[in-house]
Structure formats: structure tokens, C-alpha cells
């Protein structure tokens, strides 16, 4: 009984209940098209990108920071990987270059936050513009196509009944959950987000922890960009436009707090699934794309409002 009471008080429990209710409603309203295996597979592929980037975003928000550059870094890493593949570079090396590109962008974010003392909002906002601009510079604004077919397995392949993007997402979720709950680094992130001064007095290396968190966020954004490029069979310079809002919403819906110190990787996974199912349901209900933006915006505002009210209380 005590365990049940504790479970109901957890922030991600409310997110799971909301996800469950949304699933049930759509299964009833669109029972011919929504609960099918094919459609649920599509939904899982779609929100896998958000959940993958959400692991890094969760760490940043738990740290009482934020990363607005994830969408632009996604596009830059994907385009760099595609350009190298077009030049005949092997697939593993091209993927490694894309990952390093994402990690480097995150590292610069971290250095700006701890070295220059920029607010995370400003530092990552600047990187969002820089990475997007570099993406347009190196591509000339044109998509990169005719990539080697073996590369497509990462975004289009299946391992048994499970799509590869979903496997990548699950791997990141599991590793992220272990890191945040079972390592000294994860406890340091929570401590800094909860009370940075107390964390400093406890001997935690705050600057190093922050740089690592933003580097991880950039790395996972790069990974998502590479998987998306593989899935689309091309690198699109406008990939990821506005996706940072979905990622932030997934983290907040999953129970994280902008005040820092609270949030879980599992909660972020639930939040990402909620966003994916909501978008899919709006499409199946033939809701106009314009009204979809209104609904998604309202959900984001509602999640943030609930977070602030909850934190204030």
C-alpha cells in the first residue's frame, strides 16, 4: 500500500495516466486506423527522435538549464554525415563524424555556459542559429540525396518486429536511466539542479558536470540527425525546425521541472510517447495542420504552467 501511494505521488505517474487515457480515447474514436500494428509502428518511429534527444534535454533541464539548439544540431550532424557519404567516406566513419559534430556543438554550449557565464537560454539560442546557418552554408539550402543504400538500414531497417530507430531510442533511454539513477555523475546532476551552492560545497565539480551534460545533449542530437537522415534517405537542411519545442514539452510532460533537480528519463520517454500519439491522433482525426500547431502549443503551455504551479506550491 505504501509503495502504491509512493508511486501515485511520482510526477511521471500523472504523465503515464494521461498517455493511457489518450491511447484509450483514440483507440475508441479511430478503432479502424489508430490501434493497428502498422500505425503504432509509425508512431514509435516518429517519437523515437524526440525521446532520443529528450535524454540529453532531461539532463540539461534537471541541471536547471536548457538546450534550444537540439533541432539545428540534428540538421547539421545529418548533413555532415550525408556529405561525407557522398564523397565516398565509409559509413562508420561518416556516422562517427556526425556524432562528433553533435558532441562538439554541445561542448561549445557547455563552454559558453561555464566559461563565459552565459545563461543556458542565450548560449544554446546562439548555437541554434549558428548550427542552422552552417547547415545552409554547407548544403546551399539543397537536400543531399543518392546516399549509399546500406546506410538506410539505420533508419529503415528492422530487427525482428522492432524498427531500428526504436531500438536506438530504447538503447539511449536505458543507458540514460542507468546513468541518472545509478552513477555518481547522475547524482551530481540532480544535486546541482537542486542547489548549486550546496553541490559546490559538497565537492562536486560543477563546471565539468555542466560541460559533460551539454556535450551529451549535442551528441544525442547528432545521433537523432543521423538516424533521421537514414530514415528519409536524404539529408534535409531544414530538418528539425521547431523540434526543440516537442523535446522540451516531452521532458516537462514527463515530470521534469524548469527549476531543476527533478525529472527522470522514463518520464521523458512517456512524455515523448504522449506527444507522438497526440500528433498522430490529430492527423487521423483530419485536424488541419494549422490547428495542430494550436493544439500542440496549448499542450506545451499547459505543461509548463502546471510545472510552475507545482513548483510554486
Mean pLDDT: 91
Biggest sheet descriptor: 2 strands, antiparallel
Helix content: over 70%
Query: Which word captures the global form?
Result: globular
End-to-end distance, in Å? 26 Å
Q: Indicate the proportion of strand residues.
A: under 5%
Q: What is the helix tally?
A: 14
- Content-based structural category: mainly alpha
Q: How many beta-strand elements?
A: 2
Low-confidence stretches: none
H and E string: HHHHHHHEEHHHHHHH
Trace the largest sheet across and list its strands: 1-2
Alpha carbon gyration radius = 19 Å
What would you call the quaternary organization? single chain
Walk me through this protein's architecture:
- The protein has helices spanning 2-9, 11-29, 37-62, 70-86, 91-114, 120-139, 153-156, 164-182, 184-194, 196-201, 206-232, 243-253, 265-284, 289-312, and strands spanning 158-159, 162-163.
- It has a domain at 44-241.
- A two-stranded antiparallel ribbon has the order 1-2.
- The chain has 14 helices and two strands; from the N terminus they run αααααααββααααααα.
- The chain is mainly alpha-helical and 313 residues long.
- 75% of the residues lie in helices and 1% in strands.
Protein traits:
313 residues, mainly alpha, two-stranded antiparallel sheet, 2 strands
List the SSEs and their pairings:
Elements: H1 2-9, H2 11-29, H3 37-62, H4 70-86, H5 91-114, H6 120-139, H7 153-156, E1 158-159, E2 162-163, H8 164-182, H9 184-194, H10 196-201, H11 206-232, H12 243-253, H13 265-284, H14 289-312
Antiparallel strand pairs: 1-2
Helix pairs in contact: 2-13, 3-8, 3-11, 3-12, 3-13, 4-5, 4-6, 4-11, 5-6, 5-11, 8-9, 9-11, 12-13, 12-14
